[in-house]
Amino acid sequence: MTISKDVLDELLSGVENADDLLGDQGLMKELKVRLMERMLGAELTDHLGYEPDAEPSNQQNNRRNGTTRKTLKGNDGALPIDVPRDRDGSFEPELIKKGQTRIDGMDDKIIGLYAAGLSTRDIRAHLEEVYGLKVSADLVSRVTDAVLEEVSDWQNRALEPMYPIVFLDALRVKIRDAESRQVKNKAVYVALGVNAEGEREVLGLWIAANEGAKFWLSVMNNLRNRGVEDILIAVVDGLKGFPDAINAAFPDTTVQTCIVHLVRHSLNFCGWKDRKNVAKDLKRVYQATDDVEAEKALADFEAEWGQKYPSIAPSWRRAWQEVIPFFAFPPAVRKIIYTTNAIESLNRVIRKTTKTRGSFPTDDAATKLIYLAIRSFEKAGRCVREWVAARNQFAILYPERFNR
């Protein structure tokens, strides 16, 4: 739409400075109010069927009935709008709907600030400082609560029948317990899948009091109920009973312990000055060409460090059945499943968002923020690097399952 020069000249005839144009009482704000009121009047004319300066037919009982003052919150601060009414209350304006109190994507701004980790108090202060808007804590809560409907749809959506790789992990978040009213460290369970096209997809998040194999079984059953029929490789941490929980729902899935989890766990047993050398010698174990060479490398490691750090080698042997599947895969696949880097990057995004909060008042409050962090993570890029080589290997290793 082009505005003529004559109209612009007329509008700007009284403007002498920037405040006259952009200030709280400036032309731009007044113009926005007047245009919205004009459009609302046009909507009512269409609804009633007669012009404002005309008379309705004798058979028509519904007529214009003045206006109602409504204050809308937007980028320009508070905008007082006179919304026209009809006698029988049947007029439902489209431009400014009944009950609407915000315009200009103010809801999106509130959700964006919430997703950045700002508290309700911080959001209110930001809106007042930047936009001159005073909003209640209840308003901020109502806007962010709308995210829960989106979370519910996302959490119950249908999934792919097959995922070549699924990374499973849990992180800790401080949440106030509903019964005891005490702040507790609760486990946030996250499942990150890689589909046949190499795209990362967060399959779901779940919150529970503790991380345990029994709860992971319920997570696996949730994935199955949503359409997942097969997982080729599940990469997990060293939680006891985890492999059994996975195989109870997906019997053919290969369970692979995260090597980096094992290395980090091992380094917890040794002194700081020895960590570099211990990590270097452990690398010979997980970079071996096969499980036989890996077992020999572990024996050599134990001979070198066993007396000084007797707990490291046994911790690897206890997890050995979930370590050795790694050696059956070619380098293209090993590179991807070697670590839970994919899910660690997701966890970093979540922790960055949640670290500004000392604790969350409810599970729902934590769910809202973590979901928004996940949404941001997925927008940043979903494809796994160098997936083509890995996909070709999966097609060879699992011809019937991968190509279903």
Automatic annotation (TrEMBL):
Keyword vocabulary terms for this entry: DNA recombination, DNA-binding, Transposable element, Transposition
Residue segments, region Disordered: 48-84
Domain of life: Bacteria
Classification via InterPro entries: Transposase_mutator
Keyword DNA-binding in annotation: yes
Keyword set includes DNA-binding: yes
A Gene Ontology molecular function term of the record: DNA binding
Pfam families: Transposase_mut
Any GO BP: DNA transposition
Function statement: Required for the transposition of the insertion element.
Family to which this protein belongs: Belongs to the transposase mutator family.
PANTHER family: MUTATOR FAMILY TRANSPOSASE (PTHR33217:SF5), TRANSPOSASE FOR INSERTION SEQUENCE ELEMENT IS1081 (PTHR33217)
Protein name: Mutator family transposase
Organism per entry: Shimia litoralis
